[in-house]
Design a protein that fits this description.
Layout (H helix, E strand, L loop, with lengths): L1 E6 L7 E6 L14 E7 L5 E3 L1 H8 L9 E8 L5 H14 L29 E4 L3 E4 L5 E9 L9 H14 L2 E7 L4 H21 L4 E9 L11 H11 L8 H13 E8 L5 H5 L12 H15 L8 E2 L2 E2 L2 H13 L9 H32 L8 H21 L5 H28 L3 H4 L1 H22 L3 H27 L3 H17 L1 H15 L1 H7 L1 H15 L1
Parallel strand pairs: 5-8, 5-9, 9-10, 10-11
Antiparallel strand pairs: 1-2, 3-4, 3-6, 6-8, 7-8, 12-13
Length: 559
């Protein structure tokens, strides 16, 4: 559903832009890329993941098997996160150009942004277009941009803020921690709360749970102490995160937490964008109204985050993650935030292990499906059932080997049930391939009419014989079965011709298939003959005259 409203940056004022809510039920209305709400925070402070919308982004054919780079911006609300994200979008669309910032008169568009004291972004939004970038080593990676709800606004609980920040950090390969003016102790303590999950998970896995964190200090007012940019930022960060003997134990623990949870930590100091941005009610993001010093450092910051040589692929437990795998982690992580209380940090490890194993199952199933398609899928000709069974066994073992070869968290005991799940799902897929292969067999297609013809013929012969010998009751039953089989055959032919009443046709095929596969028709006739031979005395008792005459005739033939 499209809707228009006035938006602006946290420093600026409102601008008319088309903002869209892209729900899971609808495609992009005009084919243009836009922010997509994938994590929704409801009024009752519960969380819902829009799996359909997220899957539409991550499972598109171009990117689903590509290794993913996820860039997220998080921090306090009303500090210009979405404003920064839109410059990052501008870089991704124009990175081939040195002047990627564009014309000074172009308004800033992309993620929704506005000024004022009320929050704008809620939950987590992802840009609907995933960017494919060639890294210097020749690999092509998928770049995903995420915008998050600001922490600690007046409508969010501590659990809301912690959940959104922690989830974006768990999913991203680069987390931009957006801070205003200075890195204060409460900023570090809030970060400690979110990374507590990672600290305990690290004790279980002996690996740092998160990858890269960059402290982006906005509106830095002390360039005479530490200069703008990365060099001054790293010196400032080193001072802020330094651990000394005379520090209180609580302060030391905060810094140890942060160091132990991230593989790489850096800092960048940004100047203020100018008073026009902060006070002009008509500011719409045009570069001419932004302080030149801010745009100069923006030209350094954004390529520092997004240039091909600086992109880090998302890793979990030492393994690179694809877009398909990231979707599984998203779904697994959100499960631990469904309750009323913040989950115990160990739950994140369990969810990570679950997603890790599910991603391994998905990769193994994908291998099995691809190879079985080459054997009997699509327009491949009919394959002998024994050969299909043999190929299934070989490919099944390959799929299991792929699962076992993936580095998985949780230990062997935890992974065993996912191995069993994989075996079950592969066997279920094989049943489908058997049916698909049988449908290519012309004799299989004629199974139902052939079976019905056999039944009709058998009943016709049986009715004639029993009528001849005078057993009218059995003859009537045989004629009734014959008529029913004939009606069934005509009904089946009409269903096949018209395509109507397919459920009834499936029932007829199943019954006929069971008779064909088990040889029940021949067995029934054979059993009927044996029953007649074994219980002939009952017939003689019922018809003594005919029985005596038949006995005499047999004796004469024997003599």
């Amino acid at each position: 559903m499209a809707r228009n409203r006035k938006d602006r940056d946290s420093w600026g004022s409102f601008t008319d832009k088309g903002i869209y809510d892209w729900s899971s039920e609808e495609e992009e209305p005009d084919g243009k890329a836009r922010p997509v709400q994938v994590l929704v925070v409801k009024d009752d402070h519960s969380f819902e993941l829009d799996e359909v919308a997220l899957g539409r982004i991550l499972l598109s054919e171009e990117v689903r098997d590509r290794e993913v780079v996820a860039i997220s911006v998080a921090g306090a609300f009303r500090k210009g996160k979405s404003f920064l994200m839109d410059f990052m979008l501008r870089y991704m669309y124009n990175q081939a150009s040195e002047d990627w910032l564009g014309d000074a008169e172009d308004p800033l568009t992309g993620f929704s942004w506005r000024g004022g004291s009320e929050r704008e972004t809620t939950g987590i939004q992802i840009w609907s277009e995933v960017f494919l970038v060639d890294k210097p080593d020749g690999t092509k990676v998928a770049v995903l941009l995420m915008d998050t709800q600001g922490t600690f606004d007046s409508q969010s609980t501590l659990r809301d803020s912690a959940t959104v920040f922690a989830l974006s950090t768990m999913i991203s390969s680069m987390q931009v921690y957006n801070i205003s003016q200075n890195i204060q102790e409460d900023d570090l303590q809030h970060l400690q709360l979110f990374t507590e999950y990672g600290r305990l998970a690290m004790e279980e896995t002996f690996l740092k749970p998160f990858q890269s964190m960059i402290f982006l200090v906005r509106d830095w007012s002390f360039p005479y102490e530490f200069s703008y940019g990365q060099e001054g930022g790293m010196k400032f960060l080193e001072k802020r995160l330094k651990i000394s003997e005379n520090q209180h134990e609580e302060l030391q623990n905060v810094r140890k937490h942060i160091h132990s949870c991230f593989t790489n930590i850096s800092c960048f100091l940004m100047p203020h964008p100018g008073l026009k941005v902060a006070t002009n009610p008509n500011f719409d993001g045009r570069l001419r109204e932004i302080d030149p010093e801010f745009t100069n450092h923006l030209r350094v910051l954004v390529p520092r985050l997004l240039s091909p040589c600086n992109l880090d692929v998302k890793e979990i437990n030492g393994s690179n993650i694809t877009c398909r795998g990231l979707l599984e982690y998203f779904k697994a992580y959100i499960k631990i935030y469904q309750g009323e209380e913040l989950p115990h940090p160990k739950s994140m490890l369990q969810a990570t292990a679950e997603a890790n194993n599910l991603a391994a199952v998905a990769a193994a199933k994908d291998l099995y499906s691809k190879k079985m398609e080459e054997v009997s899928g699509g327009d491949r000709p009919f394959l002998a059932p024994s050969e299909l069974q043999a190929r299934h066994g070989e490919i099944r073992q390959e799929a299991l080997a792929v699962f076992r070869g993936v580095k998985k968290m949780g230990g062997e005991e935890f992974s065993r049930r996912y191995l069993q799940q994989l075996e079950t799902e592969v066997d279920e897929l094989f049943v489908q391939y058997i049916k698909h292969n049988d449908s290519k067999n012309i004799f299989h297609a004629a199974r139902t009419p052939a079976t019905l013809f056999v039944v009709i013929f058998a009943m016709y012969v049986a009715a004639g014989i029993t009528g001849f010998v005078g057993v009218d009751v059995i003859a009537s039953v045989c004629n009734m079965v014959l008529g029913l089989a004939l009606i069934t055959l005509c009904t089946w032919a009409y269903i096949r011709y018209s395509g109507e009443y397919r459920e009834l046709g499936a029932v007829i095929d199943q019954v006929a298939g069971a008779l064909w596969d088990q040889g029940s028709t021949n067995e029934a006739i054979y059993k009927l003959y044996n029953a007649a031979a074994n219980h002939r005395h009952l017939y003689n008792h019922a018809f003594p005259g005919q029985g005596a005459e038949q006995q005499e005739e047999q004796n004469r033939k024997r003599n």
